Amino acid sequence: MKRVFELQHDLPGSKARVGTLSTPHGVVQTPAFIPVGTKATVKAVLPETMAELGAQALLANAYHLYLQPGADIVDEAGGLGRFMNWPGPTFTDSGGFQVMSLGAGFRKTLAMDSTRVTDDDVIAEGKDRLATVDDDGVTFVSHLDGSKHRFTPEVSMRIQHQLGADVIFAFDELTTLMNTRPYQEQAVARTQAWAERCIAEHRRLTEERADKPYQALFGVVQGAQFEDLRRQAARDLVPLGFDGFGIGGALEKERLGEIVGWVTDELPDELPRHLLGIGEPGDLFAAIEAGCDTFDCVDPSRVARSSRMYAADGHYNLKVAANRRSFEPVDADCDCYTCAHYTRAYLHHLHKTNEYLAATLGTIHNERFIVRLVDRIRASIADGTYADLKADVLGRYYARQ
User: Fold this and answer.
1) Weakest-pLDDT range from 120-124, 234-238, 364-368
2) What mean pLDDT comes out for the span 54-59?
3) Range of the domain at 377
4) Does residue 190 sit in the same domain as residue 42?
């Protein structure tokens, strides 16, 4: 384990903090939002543009890059950053998310609907189970061509070493809120066992590939919404020697701060914490107050492609007729290229005519909006204005809703 995180400021009366995460490809000032480039690209936007809008790092998906083009090809190209022409730090997830999404057939939001009947063999209506879990790993069918594959902790580590990201994650099992308490217990135990195997394989591969830059390995804390499972999972991971920790799994957004707080209570202050899959303004404030340092989420780019745009006074659907003759920017307070040069009317036109440029301009704005928001939060923690910023941002953003 190498020391990769340095704490610089904390917020009195809160777990919110400012720090630096050092990687071979640069330093990430935290808290930081890490945009998701699932297949080594943030869809519709150049990597150079992502740098211009302030992204400090990008996260790609090990599962998707394993299937296409193949981790060996990315390795041969010089690693993820060089392959995609991104000079800064990179993250890759472990493929553990696919355990849930392929296994249950749900998108994350549906799978986390706790009002549904609990069922350990739950499957979305009209879907087939494409992944099965056992104590050794996961067998799954490719969504691309139906071919059969298997991920184990060792395979996940090998893939992520070949991808060459600066921050990688231990292979874990993500459950849903519909799984029973006994199954959640089994999954936490399985994730712990896999974490131990990931550590061993990571160390072996680090020695084997000593000519490559060091990759920080983060353990992943699961446990759904059970306080005892979350706390025990965190406590059990700490002695293994991870460089940092990811917090993932099923949880209700309304309880995000509470649940994440259970985990950070148990984690050492000197190590970084990454919250997986969070990107809404209210969630970001809650997670930062609970002690998280970095976050990733595909939503800013995904919803942009369907015409949903963030603004200081809430989000807008630019396809609706009200924008047809609106010759104003999406957000007058935004400093992005889209808001400086294009109107809602033009973006409405692009979406209605299914022009590719709609995705590009929308993603530029949404990614900048979230990156800039977290940058402002970071500055407010350091200068003591956090409470004022939070009240202003959330008061305006959720007022219309």
Assistant:
1) 120-124
2) 98
3) 308-393
4) yes
Same domain flag for 99 and 229 = yes
Q: Are residues 161 and 192 in the same domain?
A: yes
Task: Please tell me the predicted confidence (pLDDT) of residue 113.
Answer: 34
Counted domains in the chain: 2
Same domain, 211 and 353: no
Our measurement of the distance from residue 30's CA atom to the centroid of its chain's CA atoms, rounded to an integer in Å, reads 15
- What pLDDT, on a 0 to 100 scale, did the predictor assign at position 112? 32
pLDDT digits 0-9 by tens, 216-254? 999 999 999 999 999 999 999 999 999 999 999 888 889
Least confident of 62-76, 107-121, 162-176, 292-306: 107-121
- Predicted local confidence at residue 97, as pLDDT: 75
Active site residues: 93, 296
Q: Which of 42, 47, 12, 34 shows the shortest CA–CA distance to 272?
A: 34
The residue type of 239 is: P
Among 244, 265, 296, the domain-final residue is 296
The last residue of a domain, from among 296, 317, 333: 296
